[in-house]
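Example record used in the benchmark description.
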Amino acid sequence: MNLLKEFSLNDKCSYIDGNEQTMHYQFIDNCSSRYTQELIERGYRRFGKMFFRPTCKDCSECQSIKIDVDNYQFSKSERRVLKKAKDIKSYAQTPTMSQEHIDLFEKYHLFMKDKKEWKYQETTAEHYYNSFVHGHEDFGYEVLYFDEDKLIGVDLIDILDDGISSIYFYYDPDYSHLSLGRLSLLMQIKFAQQAKRKWIYLGYYVEECSSLNYKANYTPYLTLKGRPEIEQDYLWF
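Model output (structure tokens):
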């Protein structure tokens, strides 16, 4: 493992309008699964070789959240989502990049720009590679969802010793009727149960953010207390 650089940046908050945020970054080369687990347990997220977490001095709205897989029970509506998508095929493999990936990523973000007023910036192959392919080491995967031969969803995940870290999911909005966002998370939970992993690490829950507050619907869950440093113990409750 090699820490390439470390720094913090102040910017407009990505989650709450009118707020500012301080984000701490670490760029790590050849990061091991074990050390990634240690960072995720302390509230970090991974995009490529970049690990980051909010360190805002006067705000604690970003709550790291993880689903308790051992005690998770699928609801009737969740079983209906799984049944509705029974003809959709999925494959897990190490992350890749193709024009099909880029086109689907663009289509999804243009859709979310209109639906939820997400800030839009055209994706380049370099940006996609650095965010979702680079740095996957031996624990990063993509789960590809297909309707026959058509790619309709991509779920980026890390499979760690104690759980699955959910990185990013995007999908074809033409298939919104299949609730693909819910489907991808339910499939993560099913896989974790089969693979004897205890947790699904969902990143940040922010009550005021419509793109993140859905995470509280997946119970039981735990949240991380504070922002422990790597040499400190952590507590989820």
